[in-house]
Amino acid sequence: MVSKEREVAIEAVLKACTVCQKVFNTLVKGETVIKQDESPVTIGDFAAQAIVSITLQKHFPDFKLVGEENSKALKESESLRKRVTNLVNETLESKYSEEEIMKAIDRGTYEGGSTGNFWVIDPIDGTMGFLRGGQYAVCLGYTVNGEITLGVLGCPNLPCNDMDENGPKGCLFIGEKGLGAFQRNFGSNEDVKIHVSQADTTAKAKFCESFESSHSSHKDSAEIASLLNITLPPIRIDSQCKYGIIARGNAEVYLRFAREGYIENTWDHAAGSLIVKEAGGIVCDMYGKPLDFSKGRQLINNKGVIATNGILHNQVMKAIKSVFKLNNVLLA
Ligand SMILES: Nc1ncnc2c1ncn2[C@@H]1O[C@H](COP(=O)(O)O)[C@@H](OP(=O)(O)O)[C@H]1O
Ligand SMILES: [Mg+2]
Ligand SMILES: [Mg+2]
Ligand SMILES: [Mg+2]
Q: Which residues are recorded as binding Mg(2+) (predicted)?
């Protein structure tokens, strides 16, 4: 039986994707504000988080939400507030006040943890890609007692068929614990089961990483790729679309090595990591430890993120151990 959470998550992510596409088509440069962490955030991020929050609230009135965004910038800017309010109201069936929309966004301030049920939303993951016209994803995860049990990624600019840039674009990835991973193309109701690549030699493997070298060291990944005899150039795309392409077998390895001291956010990995696991892959940190979503809003117990098709996992982990000169790396 299809769970209510799954149905609602798909509805929420699709509506949020609609608003993102609309914002991209009408975005003017001046509407990007810089948050304290200096990542760009657009009216799209706020509107998408509001839409997901309102949709969850409609079906699950007591829901809890760990979300990337909050309403601080909206409280400080009337024009931003009005733009976001208009966008939300143009997308949803009912009309909401500015106050209601800011409250919906601020449902996302939940601290997370190891008990109970809560949702995790990154309304636009890959904001840099979004602004560039590249890849981005609306990412919604559901957590039960510290473990991700449902993940939905909405990828409006991702080719539906392999990486065919000339074919149709826009797809969802859906993963449910124990039930597998699926792709549903925008405009379709058909969920197609997906599986990681069965490639078993690193020399023919494809790896992916962040487009932005400030998010993940391209130098370190190149060294690892060289040690593994990977000859194909890296696939550099923004956002959790990387998890999607691992899950459906377009690449075998995803490497992410942030700068020293950077702690990853749960919303950047919740949905995507479950989808890869449900597609038969393995996701862990650079020490081979599983990502621990039970410690609050960030992955404080982890460093780096690695996803593989499983078959090549131990070879990749051994290369990481060697390049970073680590003493202890867990193998699968
Ligand atoms: N210095 C840094 N190192 C690693 N990740 C970073 C970073 N600065 C920002 N990020 C995170 O990287 C995410 C994008 O990942 P990717 O590089 O795979 O596209 C951003 O998500 P948002 O775009 O939602 O802010 C942000 O949370
Ligand atoms: Mg951000
Ligand atoms: Mg993100
Ligand atoms: Mg984001």
A: 68, 122, 124-125, 268
Between the CA of 66 and the centroid of ligand 4 the distance, in Å, is 12
The whole-number pLDDT of residue 32 equals: 62
| Residue 127 Cβ < 6 Å to ligand 1 | yes
Helices (H) and strands (E) in the chain, counts: 10, 14
According to DSSP H, which parts of the chain are helical? 4-26, 43-59, 72-76, 78-91, 98-106, 127-132, 218-227, 241-247, 270-278, 313-323
Backbone φ, ψ for residue 95 (5° rounding): -105, 140
* Span from the CA of 182 to the centroid of ligand 3 (angstroms): 22
Is residue 89 pLDDT above 90, yes or no? yes
Q: What total number of domains does the chain contain?
A: 2
Same domain membership, residue 86 and residue 146: yes
Q: 112 with 222, same domain? A: no
**Of the residues 175, 194, 213, which one is the last residue of a structural domain?**
194
**Domain limits for position 151:** 4-194
Mark out the alpha helices in 92-239 (DSSP H runs).
98-106, 127-132, 218-227
Q: How confident is the model at residue 40 (pLDDT cuts 50, 70, 90)?
A: low
Does 209 sit in the ligand 1 pocket, CB within 6 Å? no
Q: Does residue 56 contact residue 12 with C-beta atoms inside 8 Å?
A: yes
Question: What pTM value is reported for the model?
Answer: 0.97
CATH of the domain at 63: 3.30.540.10
